Amino acid sequence: MSEDRITEQLAFLAEIDALKSVVRQSRIVDRSRRENSAEHSWHLAMFALVLADDETVDTARVIKLLLVHDIVEIDAGDAPMHGNHDSKEVEARENAAAERLFGLLPDDQAAKLSALWREFEAAETPEARFAKALDRLQPLLLNTLTGGGTWTENHVTEQQVHDRYGPTIQRGSPILWRQAQDLVRRHFSDANDGL
Amino acid sequence: MSEDRITEQLAFLAEIDALKSVVRQSRIVDRSRRENSAEHSWHLAMFALVLADDETVDTARVIKLLLVHDIVEIDAGDAPMHGNHDSKEVEARENAAAERLFGLLPDDQAAKLSALWREFEAAETPEARFAKALDRLQPLLLNTLTGGGTWTENHVTEQQVHDRYGPTIQRGSPILWRQAQDLVRRHFSDANDGL
């Protein structure tokens, strides 16, 4: 490692500190505040460490995909799930963000981290599909633990939860989607009892 | 994966959400607030992904050590570096925390994650020593980026920085310590110029 190389690496690591200030829609379990994208990324990496262990995917690779998957939000912002977005515009913003942010690294590592991010986005490898499933499962779990969370705030119905979370979780892990459906069913049944 | 197994795994993943509410002493780079241990763990995992790449350590293992290294703080709290602690008491609290928290997982995974945490604490393997070095390097970098941060707050001298950060960083990565010393020297020299 040359000094210049480490200087570039530390500049990148200082810059991505800003992910701690990107605020998502989900509330943390104690409901005191909304979650930021840096702690969300840690939580997802822990989901991978625990849940990928029983799957036929490369756990370490799933973890790496999840560690980098939200870094582009530093420039491009978080696109909330239950909102309307121009997907072409989001994609253009995120591509520019990836170029600037990963571009702070030495060239070989810029290529490597960009490739991880693109692999996650493309959702074609088993690891990327599983990582995407976890990225849907985690806010689903948080919502069931916080009285409905973003579902309640956005008047999202049980059917909409199935439509918006189901395909991605099912594609990455059918068994996790089966179990998630139980959580969703129980949540909406309790919510209806409370009316 | 059985349903009971996933239920235990999700209970653990819900419980460790609380790491997002454990507040550390370091400020995030924009100085708006102190850092929490969950986002700190993500940041460290990124340090590993970028910096371990050039070392002779198993990067994936360093990342796993860092993802779990602070989980015991959920019960035991963070022990600030520049404070006085009864280390026996901290150790007892952290052991009890590890038993309760990792104990929420299925037995095989409880053993696995406890082993990762103990490996980090023991700092005997090259991966654990490198992880420990990053856990010192990250707050050092944050302090140099936030006008001295916890050093200024606690009247820590340049010599004390060397004594408290040097041995751990040096032991995990001599080259990173050489570069960190430059950052420290520059920080204290600028600070003195400002007097």
UniProtKB/TrEMBL annotation, chains A, B:
Gene3D superfamilies: Hypothetical protein af1432 (1.10.3210.10)
Protein's name in the database: HD family hydrolase
Domain HD: 16-177
InterPro entries for the chain: HD_domain (IPR006674), YfbR/HDDC2 (IPR039356)
GO molecular function, one term: hydrolase activity
Record keyword S-adenosyl-L-methionine present: no
Keywords linked to the UniProt accession: Hydrolase, Metal-binding
Name of a matching Pfam family: HD_3
Taxonomy of the source species: Bacteria, Pseudomonadati, Pseudomonadota, Gammaproteobacteria, Salinisphaerales
